[in-house]
Input
Amino acid sequence: MLTSQQTELALKALDNFTIELPSWGFANTGTRFGKFIQASAATCTAEKIADAGAVHRFTGCCPSVAVHVLWDFPNGLSDVAGLMKTASEHGVRIGAINPNVFQDQCYKNGSLGNPDPEVRKQALSHILDSVEIQRATGSRDLSLWFADGLSYPGTGSIRARKGWFTDGLKTVHAALSGNQRMLVEYKPFEPAFYATDIADWGMAYIYSKHAGPRAKVLVDTGHHYQTQNIEQIVAWLLAEDMLGGFHFNDRRYADDDLTLGCMDPYQVFRIFHEICYFTWETGKAPDIAYMVDQSHNLKNKIEETIQTSNNAQELYLKAALVDHAQLAQYQKAGELVDAEECLRTAFFADVRPVLREWRKSKGLAEDPMAAFRESGYTRKAEQERAARNQGAVSSYA
Ligand code: AFD
Ligand code: MN
Ligand code: MN
Output
């Protein structure tokens, strides 16, 4: 049972915690081995936004939707007004802008890292067009992930590619204005299987530093080797004021894009702990974009996103409950067991009652999953979308 002081702290933490949803999480996506079509899945960007709006309506913590330029703005800037109108009709706003320089045929040997200067120019022009969309939607963040890399030794100059990326990202940075930021995401492998051009946090950090002060590192929790200590990376980036945000998901083996917290909730808690501990020590909450990046191939897409949002709120709440003053004392005194127990006590605290109290105070159903299921949203979506989804063949493409 939480003390009244902990309850007050928890309610305040929930008021300040939001997590952005990925538009691509609501459409029929899958793995490279095919996809299993869901009749209720979104079949256009307006429906993806409507589905994200439904998650926000039931959870109260997902007010924005990250979008993918090629998939959500097929006509570029001219799609912006309509999508912003759709977003506000569903009680959400457009969030991070994701350029796409990984699926066009010309990017076979890379985008900003391509040895052909014409392809590098084409990639840069798409990213600069994405900055214009970012400006038009009023989005703060440009979320940059690159599939660039080599799959065989000797098939490219690692240093030349580093130089091209440095130049390209500098040019992107120069196009930013106002409160705009660019978040540089790293990934150790996939689809490149020998040397990915932005493979780890160090490379993303160096590229960001070269680009300029608006560039920060984006940590995708699925983009690490099995043994990597993600919360240590988070602590370093916080200390350097270089943590831009997260793409949250969970994994058992690689970039599995599973439901946040389904495999290792204690690791997610430790990541949030580093942020809450930093906030307590500095007295200032870092400006971090919490975003989901998952591919809901098997579960109902909206239900999995509600599950993800609930897990994120619960684990963030637990991290907020750590007795930081006590922990700092034990760490200083080298009291190892007592220091560790500060984390474990908070991790095992039952925060579901206070989460239900918070939802009630916001006029939300205490159980968002049950409320969503009772709403009949899925059945209605199936009726409206089944025919269009039937046409989406499950293929190796
Ligand atoms: C894939 C990539 C990366 C990127 C996401 C959205 O691995 O995580 O952020 O697609 O473009 O998951
Ligand atoms: Mn990602
Ligand atoms: Mn990924």
About this structure: The pocket of manganese (II) ion (ligand 2) is lined by residues 145, 185, 220, 247, 293 (CB under 6 Å).
